Amino acid sequence: xxxxxxxxxxLSFQDLEFLSSLSRSVCLxxxxxxxxxxNAGRFIEDWTGLDEETVEYVASQLDMQPVHPHRSYSDRTxxxxxxxxxxxxxxxxxxAGHRAELEVWLRDxxxxxGGTMGDMLEQSFYWFQERRLLPPAEGILTRFIRTxxxxxxxxxxxxxxxSLTDETVxxxxxxxxxxxxxxxxxxxxxxxxxxxxxxxxxxxxRLAFIQKLTLPLVSISSIDLSWIKxxxxxxxxxxxxxxxxxxxxxxxxLLAIYLISRRSQLIDGLVDLLIEVVHRIGTKSxxxxxxxxxxxxxxxxxxxxxxxxxxxxxxxxxxxxxxEVIFPVAGAVKLKAIIDEHRAKGTLDARIQxxxxxxxxxxxxxxxxxxxxxxxFRSNNxxxxxxxxxxxxxxxxxxxxxxxxxxxxxxEGSIPRKWRDTVIDGRGRVNVISYELCVLxxxxxxxxxxxxWIEGADRFRNxxxxxxxxxxxxRDDYYAGLKLTQDAHAFSRSVRExxxxxxxxxxxxxxxxxxxxxxxxGENRICITPxxxxxEPKGLIGLKSEIGRRWPMTGLLDTLKERALNTGFLDGFETxxxxxxxxxNERGQRLLLCLYGLGTNAGLKRVAAGTPEIxxxxxxxxxxxxxxxxxxxAATSRVADATLAIRNPAIWGEAGTACAADSTKxxxxxxxxxxxxxARYGGxx
Length: 685
Fold this sequence. Notes:
By secondary structure, the chain is mostly helical. Among the domains are: 3-89, no CATH class; 96-156, no CATH class; 375-463; 561-643, no CATH class. 61% of the residues lie in helices and 4% in strands. The protein has a two-stranded antiparallel ribbon. A two-stranded antiparallel sheet has the order 2-3. Helix 8 (138-162) crosses helix 15 (248-298), helix 13 crosses helix 15 (248-298) and helix 21 runs antiparallel to helix 23 (432-448). The radius of gyration is 35 Å and the shape is extended. The two termini are 37 Å apart. InterPro entries: DUF4158, Tn3_Tnp_DDE_dom.
C-alpha cells in the first residue's frame, strides 16, 4: 500500500480508544466508516469497493482477522454504530434549516458550475463535511441533486424560449412537425457524409438554415459547457415525436440549444469536406500527371544512340533537307516523344496545377459560393492576411461573373511563386478559376496548421480560446512553467540547432551503421532496416499455456464483464435524461451488451436476439441515453490506466511509443513536430 492510501486508512490512538468501546463484531466496520467520513465526508454504503489490501491494513491496526465487511447499510446495528461515530466525530444531525441552505447552495453555486452527477455528489458530501453535519444516505442526497438539476435546467430552457423571436419559434415548430423535410428535425441530425459535391452543398444548405434563425448565442455562451453537452445529448437520443410530447418551453429550449451545438458540428463537418476535397483534387491530379509523364518517358528508348545517329547523318549531309536526312534516322513520332519528355522536366507543378484546374472547374467549383456564404474564416496572424483578403476578392469576382481580373486587384502575397505562371497569363491577367484553386490550396494548409480558424466552429475554433482564461495576466508564469522562451526567433533557433545537431550525429554515425541508409527517391529518404523480431520469451509461452488451461474458450463478453468489475468503467456512463429508473444491475447488463454489440459490429439486433430477456428497444434506449464519445473516452482511459498499473515491467517492459488502430501500428512521440490531425482516426497521428 502506498503512503497516500496508508495515510487515509490509518487510525489514531483516540480512534482505537473509541473503537475499543464498541462491540467486537462491528469494530472493523466502524474503523472503515471513521476513515471514510474523515476523508470523503460520507459513510460507506457499498462494501464491494474495498480492496483486500485495505482490509488487511485496517485489520492489522486492530489486531483482528481481515474479514471483508458485508453488513447492509440499512441494518439496525449499522445505523446504531453510525450514530455513535457521528457523536464521536462531533457531527451535528441535519435539520430543516440545513436542508434549505443545501438547496440554495445547489441552485446558486453547484449547478451553475456544471459537472456530472458523480462530481456533484462528491462535492455535496464535502459540503456536509465542511459544516460538520451528519451526511445523509447517498440515495437521499442524489434525489436532492437531481431536483436541483431539474430546476436549474428548466430555468435555462424557459429563459431561452422566452428570448426566441416569433419567426424562430415558427421555424422550430415546423422543423419538429415535418422531421423528414429539407430542414426537418431528422435531416438536421444527419452527418455531412463523405467528401462529395452533393454532400457539401447539402451541408451548406442546412447550416445556412440554422444561421438564419435568431438563436440566443450570447445567452448560451454564459452557460457551463457541461450543461450544453448534457442537453444536446438528450435531444440526440430522442425522436421528433418524443420531442413534441414535451412542454412548449422545454421543447423549444432543447431544440434551440441543440441547433446551436449542431451549428458548430456542421461547420466542422464542412471544413473537413473542404480539406478532403482539395486534397483529393491535388492527389488525383498529381497521380494522373506522373502517370502521363511515365508513359511519355517509356516511349523513348536509346536517346543517346539516336542522338549519335542524327549527328552522323547531319555531318554526312550538312546541306541536306531535314525531311531527307534526319527523318529517315529518327521519325517524327520519336522526335515528338523526346520533345514531350523535355517539356515534362521541371514543369511538374505547372502540369499538376493545370489538371487540378480542369477537375475543379468542371465539377467542384460549384461548392465554393455556398461554402464562402456560410463559413467565416479568421486568422490571428497577419502573415496570412492575404489569404483572407483573397477569399473576399473571390466572393466579389464570383458575384460579378468574371473569368479574368487585373493583377492589381490581387492582394500582395496571396499567389505563391509556384502558382504564378498558372494564375497570371502572358497578358498580365489573373485567371479567376486558377486563383480560386490557388487560394483554396493555401487555405487547406493553414487550417490544418490552425493558422486560420473558422468562426463558430468547435474543432477548428480560435486557438486562443484553448488558452487559460488568465493567460494574458500570467503569461510569464505559464512560459516559465513550460520552460519555454517567449522570443519566437530564439525558440525557432533552438529547435533548428537541435535538429542540426541530430543531423550531424546521424552523418557521423551513418558510415558505420549498416541498419540505416539513404534513399535517392521517395518521400522518406532516411531508411531504417526493420528490426528482427525477438524470440518469444519462454515465460510468456508458459503463461499463455496456463491461461488457456484455466480459462479455455473464454468469450469476449465474459472478458468485458470482468474488466468492468475490476475497473468500474461502467460508472462513467451517465444518462442524458432528467431522471433514471433503471436499477444499477440492469443498467450495467444492458450497457455491456450494447458495448459488445457496437464494438464487435454484431449490432444491437443480433445481441438482443441472443438474450430473450432483453429486447432490442431496451438496448436502443441505453445506446441513445448512456453511450456518447465522452463517456467512451473516459471508460477507455480507465481501462488503460488500470492495465498499466498492474503490468509488471520486469515481464512486459516499460510502456513504449508503439500504438495501434485498425490493425495499423504507428509510433507516437511526445512533442513530435510531424504530428498532425488525422482525418480518418479523428485525432493526432
